[in-house]
Design a protein that fits this description.
Arc Repressor Mutant, subunit A, three-stranded antiparallel sheet
Length: 151
């Protein structure tokens, strides 16, 4: 009886050793994977830090030859109105700027972008650089250059 008990205990001990060995192998694999994750994370951070906003601006400003991201807000608005050669809503101006300029890159919604631009549009209207008019059945104002309305 003692012999059977000792055999059972030996088998049990081997089973426990196998489990511990498997556990250790899993922990080793986990450590290797964690090191790989850390190196990938470091390379991503390094790549993000290298790319700066100026290079992104240069790439975007090359899409239209005369449009420059360093224009003042009013110059940008006038350029867009000249380029499109028709009256535009402020949301249309924003969508155009969104495609070619990085100024709205970190803003979340279209409404935020329109709110930012509305101040500059109002200043341009007060200075007489652009004109504002209302069309029936359209929500909002159209903005255009003064010479576009006369023609």
């Amino acid at each position: 009886m003692n012999r059977q008990l000792s055999i059972k205990m030996t088998r049990r001990g081997r089973g426990i050793r196998r489990i511990k060995n498997n556990q250790q192998e899993i922990l080793d694999q986990l450590q290797v994977l964690q090191e790989q994750i850390d190196t990938i994370r470091e390379s991503i951070l390094h790549n993000n830090s290298e790319s700066n906003h100026k290079s992104r601006r240069r790439i975007k400003s090359l899409s239209i030859d005369d449009y420059k991201t360093f224009f003042s807000w009013q110059e940008k608005i006038v350029f867009i109105l000249k380029y499109r050669n028709r009256p535009l809503l402020s949301s249309e101006i924003v969508s155009f700027m969104d495609d070619f300029d990085t100024v709205f890159q970190y803003k979340w919604t279209e409404l935020d972008k329109v709110k930012i631009l509305s101040t500059h549009i109002t200043r341009a209207v007060k200075r007489g650089i652009i004109t504002r008019f209302k069309q029936a059945a359209v929500r909002g104002y159209y903005y255009s250059l003064p010479d576009l309305i006369k023609s």
